[in-house]
User: Fold this.
Amino acid sequence: MSEEQNEQGQQYKWPVIAAVAAVVILAGWFAYYSFHTQPLVDETLRGQFVWNFEIVPAAGAQATTTVVVLHVAGVDLPAGAYPGECDEINGRSVAYLPGELSGVICRNGASGTEIGVFKDSDKLVLKRGAITAADGRGADFAAITKQGV
Assistant:
């Protein structure tokens, strides 16, 4: 190899090393970020919660009412009837709240209710909270009991 070819090789050595280092750093950051932002709850568990909606048409000046039932492990759990229409939270276009595994948002104009399954210590609890105008999400969640539906 001639001295001229050696100098040309040295000239391109540092930009190639810098490019390779940048790719390795970006790949490492992506791997770290992907691993540490994964939900702690297995998506298989989320798939076990099936929300069913029965829309009761409006009568006169009343708003449409949606009856919400959660089906899990072969059991139907009535979650209540709410004015307006309900949509399931999918975790993508609407993020889950901290500790929320599955949920529904029922809106009637600017107000509404969020119903969700939350991890509470070592158990799962069905809760509901009033939607706040500030962020459009439920707040002050309380457990839904059979008597309180």
The mean pLDDT is 79. The first strand starts at residue 50 and ends at 56.
